[in-house]
Design goal:
Layout: E1 10-13, H1 18-30, E2 35-38, H2 45-53, E3 60-62, E4 68-70, H3 74-83
Parallel strand pairs: 1-2
Antiparallel strand pairs: 1-3, 3-4
């Protein structure tokens, strides 16, 4: 797994998760760089996501200011990206 510190944003998700697919697509369309942690390919990373969020829900989006979202809406992500001047 890539360390979250290596990227401005880390997205923990899975290919079967519709919210993960939607959030990943949003970041791609906005041209925002991020590290994607595939919880199917690296199941042990689920423990890291749970440690960050305190929950088992995905996606977990970890931002460079150490804040995070769990199952965020597109507007939640966009607002946070604007707050951090990433878009």
């Amino acid at each position: 797994m890539t360390s979250p510190a290596e990227s401005a944003i880390t997205l923990f998700g899975a290919d079967w998760c519709r919210d993960c697919i939607r959030t990943k697509k949003q970041l791609d369309e906005l041209g925002v760089e991020y590290t994607y942690v595939d919880l199917v390919a690296d199941p042990s990373a689920a423990d890291v996501a749970k440690e960050i969020s305190g929950r088992t829900n995905i996606p977990v989006v970890l931002y460079p200011d150490s804040s995070h979202h769990v199952e965020p809406s597109n507007s939640d992500v966009e607002s946070k990206l604007r707050e951090l001047s990433l878009i």
